[in-house]
Amino acid sequence: MRQLFSIAFTILLLLNVMGYYGVFLGLQYKNDQDMLQRLDENNYSDSETVTIKIPISIPYAMESEGFERVDGKFEHNGEFYRLVKQKLSSDTLYVVCVKDHQNKRIDDAMTSFVKTFTDKPVDNHSSSKIVISFIKDYIPQSFTVQHLTAGWETDVVKESSCSVLKSSFYPSIIHPPERG
To answer: 94 phi and psi, to 5 degrees?
Structure first.
Protein backbone atom coordinates (compact mmCIF):
# COMPACT_ATOMS: atom_id res chain seq x y z
CA MET A 1 0.00 0.00 0.00
CA ARG A 2 2.81 2.37 0.90
CA GLN A 3 4.59 1.69 -2.42
CA LEU A 4 1.37 2.39 -4.37
CA PHE A 5 0.99 5.67 -2.49
CA SER A 6 4.61 6.57 -3.30
CA ILE A 7 4.10 5.85 -7.02
CA ALA A 8 0.85 7.85 -7.09
CA PHE A 9 2.51 10.75 -5.30
CA THR A 10 5.45 10.68 -7.76
CA ILE A 11 3.10 10.67 -10.75
CA LEU A 12 1.09 13.54 -9.27
CA LEU A 13 4.28 15.51 -8.60
CA LEU A 14 5.55 14.96 -12.17
CA LEU A 15 2.17 15.94 -13.59
CA ASN A 16 2.25 19.09 -11.48
CA VAL A 17 5.81 19.97 -12.53
CA MET A 18 5.73 19.01 -16.20
CA GLY A 19 2.01 19.28 -16.87
CA TYR A 20 0.27 17.47 -19.67
CA TYR A 21 3.18 18.19 -21.98
CA GLY A 22 5.19 15.63 -20.01
CA VAL A 23 2.35 13.13 -20.41
CA PHE A 24 2.39 13.64 -24.18
CA LEU A 25 6.18 13.28 -24.26
CA GLY A 26 5.86 10.03 -22.33
CA LEU A 27 3.25 8.73 -24.75
CA GLN A 28 5.46 9.73 -27.67
CA TYR A 29 8.45 7.92 -26.16
CA LYS A 30 6.39 4.77 -25.50
CA ASN A 31 5.10 4.80 -29.08
CA ASP A 32 8.65 5.23 -30.42
CA GLN A 33 9.85 2.21 -28.45
CA ASP A 34 6.87 0.06 -29.49
CA MET A 35 7.24 0.96 -33.17
CA LEU A 36 10.99 0.32 -33.09
CA GLN A 37 10.44 -3.13 -31.60
CA ARG A 38 7.66 -3.90 -34.09
CA LEU A 39 9.78 -2.88 -37.09
CA ASP A 40 12.88 -4.71 -35.81
CA GLU A 41 10.83 -7.91 -35.57
CA ASN A 42 9.37 -7.38 -39.10
CA ASN A 43 5.92 -7.37 -37.52
CA TYR A 44 4.16 -5.54 -40.36
CA SER A 45 2.58 -6.53 -43.65
CA ASP A 46 3.62 -5.43 -47.12
CA SER A 47 0.21 -3.80 -47.59
CA GLU A 48 1.14 -1.30 -44.84
CA THR A 49 4.34 -0.19 -46.57
CA VAL A 50 4.94 2.75 -48.85
CA THR A 51 7.99 2.75 -51.13
CA ILE A 52 9.58 6.07 -52.03
CA LYS A 53 11.97 6.29 -54.99
CA ILE A 54 14.48 9.12 -54.72
CA PRO A 55 16.70 9.84 -57.73
CA ILE A 56 20.21 10.43 -56.48
CA SER A 57 23.56 10.68 -58.19
CA ILE A 58 26.49 9.81 -56.00
CA PRO A 59 29.79 9.27 -57.77
CA TYR A 60 31.44 5.96 -56.91
CA ALA A 61 28.41 4.81 -54.93
CA MET A 62 28.30 1.13 -54.08
CA GLU A 63 25.05 -0.61 -54.87
CA SER A 64 23.20 -2.41 -52.12
CA GLU A 65 22.60 -6.11 -52.65
CA GLY A 66 19.41 -5.98 -50.65
CA PHE A 67 17.48 -3.78 -48.31
CA GLU A 68 19.10 -2.73 -45.04
CA ARG A 69 17.20 -1.79 -41.89
CA VAL A 70 17.10 1.93 -41.09
CA ASP A 71 15.43 3.91 -38.35
CA GLY A 72 13.84 7.31 -38.61
CA LYS A 73 10.57 9.16 -38.87
CA PHE A 74 9.14 12.06 -40.81
CA GLU A 75 5.88 13.91 -41.42
CA HIS A 76 4.41 14.57 -44.85
CA ASN A 77 1.04 16.25 -45.44
CA GLY A 78 -0.06 15.67 -41.85
CA GLU A 79 0.75 11.94 -41.92
CA PHE A 80 3.57 10.42 -39.88
CA TYR A 81 5.82 7.76 -41.38
CA ARG A 82 8.50 5.46 -39.97
CA LEU A 83 11.46 4.42 -42.06
CA VAL A 84 11.81 0.64 -42.28
CA LYS A 85 14.51 -0.18 -44.80
CA GLN A 86 16.40 1.28 -47.75
CA LYS A 87 18.37 0.17 -50.79
CA LEU A 88 20.61 2.02 -53.28
CA SER A 89 20.30 0.71 -56.81
CA SER A 90 22.20 2.49 -59.63
CA ASP A 91 20.97 6.09 -59.40
CA THR A 92 17.87 5.54 -57.25
CA LEU A 93 17.44 5.27 -53.49
CA TYR A 94 14.48 3.09 -52.50
CA VAL A 95 13.08 3.86 -49.03
CA VAL A 96 10.35 1.69 -47.51
CA CYS A 97 8.12 3.33 -44.87
CA VAL A 98 5.02 2.51 -42.84
CA LYS A 99 2.41 4.95 -41.54
CA ASP A 100 2.52 5.61 -37.83
CA HIS A 101 -1.14 6.03 -36.91
CA GLN A 102 -0.52 6.15 -33.15
CA ASN A 103 1.95 9.03 -33.55
CA LYS A 104 -0.69 10.94 -35.52
CA ARG A 105 -3.26 10.40 -32.75
CA ILE A 106 -0.82 11.63 -30.09
CA ASP A 107 0.08 14.67 -32.20
CA ASP A 108 -3.59 15.49 -32.85
CA ALA A 109 -4.36 15.19 -29.12
CA MET A 110 -1.45 17.47 -28.21
CA THR A 111 -2.47 19.99 -30.87
CA SER A 112 -6.07 20.10 -29.66
CA PHE A 113 -4.87 20.39 -26.04
CA VAL A 114 -2.65 23.35 -26.92
CA LYS A 115 -5.52 25.00 -28.82
CA THR A 116 -7.56 25.08 -25.64
CA PHE A 117 -5.05 27.61 -24.29
CA THR A 118 -4.62 29.73 -27.40
CA ASP A 119 -7.83 29.73 -29.44
CA LYS A 120 -10.40 31.96 -27.81
CA PRO A 121 -13.18 33.87 -29.52
CA VAL A 122 -12.31 37.50 -30.24
CA ASP A 123 -15.52 38.94 -28.72
CA ASN A 124 -15.10 37.03 -25.46
CA HIS A 125 -14.66 39.77 -22.83
CA SER A 126 -13.60 37.87 -19.76
CA SER A 127 -12.89 39.42 -16.42
CA SER A 128 -9.38 37.91 -16.38
CA LYS A 129 -8.01 40.79 -18.47
CA ILE A 130 -9.51 43.30 -16.04
CA VAL A 131 -8.06 41.46 -13.04
CA ILE A 132 -4.60 41.31 -14.66
CA SER A 133 -4.60 45.03 -15.48
CA PHE A 134 -5.90 45.80 -11.98
CA ILE A 135 -3.17 43.70 -10.34
CA LYS A 136 -0.46 45.42 -12.40
CA ASP A 137 -1.29 48.70 -10.68
CA TYR A 138 -0.41 47.29 -7.27
CA ILE A 139 2.61 45.13 -8.08
CA PRO A 140 5.79 47.16 -7.68
CA GLN A 141 7.89 47.15 -10.80
CA SER A 142 11.42 48.43 -10.78
CA PHE A 143 13.97 48.59 -13.48
CA THR A 144 17.58 49.60 -13.77
CA VAL A 145 19.72 50.63 -16.66
CA GLN A 146 23.10 48.98 -16.76
CA HIS A 147 26.03 49.42 -19.08
CA LEU A 148 26.71 46.51 -21.38
CA THR A 149 30.29 47.52 -22.09
CA ALA A 150 32.74 50.00 -20.64
CA GLY A 151 33.67 51.32 -24.08
CA TRP A 152 34.57 55.01 -24.07
CA GLU A 153 33.08 55.58 -20.68
CA THR A 154 34.78 57.77 -18.09
CA ASP A 155 33.71 59.24 -14.78
CA VAL A 156 33.47 63.03 -14.58
CA VAL A 157 34.38 64.47 -11.21
CA LYS A 158 34.31 68.18 -10.51
CA GLU A 159 37.19 69.30 -8.33
CA SER A 160 38.24 72.72 -7.25
CA SER A 161 41.94 72.61 -6.62
CA CYS A 162 44.89 74.75 -7.44
CA SER A 163 47.18 73.04 -9.88
CA VAL A 164 50.82 73.80 -10.25
CA LEU A 165 52.30 73.36 -13.68
CA LYS A 166 55.63 71.63 -13.81
CA SER A 167 57.83 71.14 -16.77
CA SER A 168 57.64 67.62 -18.05
CA PHE A 169 60.12 67.95 -20.89
CA TYR A 170 62.49 65.03 -21.25
CA PRO A 171 65.23 65.05 -23.83
CA SER A 172 64.48 62.65 -26.62
CA ILE A 173 68.12 61.54 -27.06
CA ILE A 174 69.99 60.31 -24.06
CA HIS A 175 73.78 60.26 -24.51
CA PRO A 176 75.92 57.74 -22.73
CA PRO A 177 78.32 59.12 -20.14
CA GLU A 178 81.76 60.07 -21.40
CA ARG A 179 84.77 58.05 -20.31
CA GLY A 180 87.44 60.04 -18.99
So the answer is: -100, 125
